[in-house]
Amino acid sequence: MNRLVSMTTVASILTIGCASGPSTAPLPADLAIVAPDSAVPADVRALSGKWSGKWRGLAGGQQQETLLVVERIGGKEATVVYSQGDHSRFRSLYHRATAKVEPGMLTFSIALRDGPAVYTYRLQPDGSLDAKMEYRGFNAVSTLKRAT
Question: Most buried among 74, 84, 93, 144, by the most CB within 10 A?
């Protein structure tokens, strides 16, 4: 009986240890998603909302949590909040930016200490966003899903 209890306890601890913890990607307190006008094309309206994923291709094979919140879309521009979580080499942060909008795609840059980081997000047929980040000759990629 003791052996069964201890194996169950170990399995529970391992399961808890594998569960996702709370998000380390910060967001501003004044975050507000405004639904796009119905006149906005469907492939642009589909970009609105909160998206989450993990950057791949980082140093040491690590992944880093990332969030994209498309707050407003109008015409050829969108207001977005980019956020990244904790990582051993990069600090967590968020930035609000103005993105260039094309059918099914958003592009923006953020001025970082050592130069600009350029972000491109493309809507995929399955409803996900393919993301690419370019910074000082370095590229990372992610697939973002709608977040709640």
Answer: 84
12-66 confidence digits (pLDDT tens) = 322 233 334 567 899 999 999 999 999 999 999 999 999 999 998 766 667 889 9
Q: How far apart are CA 46 and CA 42, in angstroms?
A: 6
- Quick check: 93 pLDDT over 50? yes
Contact between 86 and 102 under an 8 Å Cβ cutoff? The reply is no
Looking from the CA of 14 toward its CB, the CA atoms found within 13 Å total: 6
109/80 Cα distance (integer angstroms): 11
SS3 148: coil
Cα first-last separation, the chain: 42
Cα 49–Cα 142–Cα 74 angle in degrees, nearest 5: 30
Instruction: Indicate if the pLDDT at residue 85 is higher than 60.
Output: yes
Q: Which two tokens stand for residue 129?
A: 């966003």
Residue 22 carries which DSSP code?
A: -
Torsion angles phi and psi, residue 137, rounded to 5: 80, 0
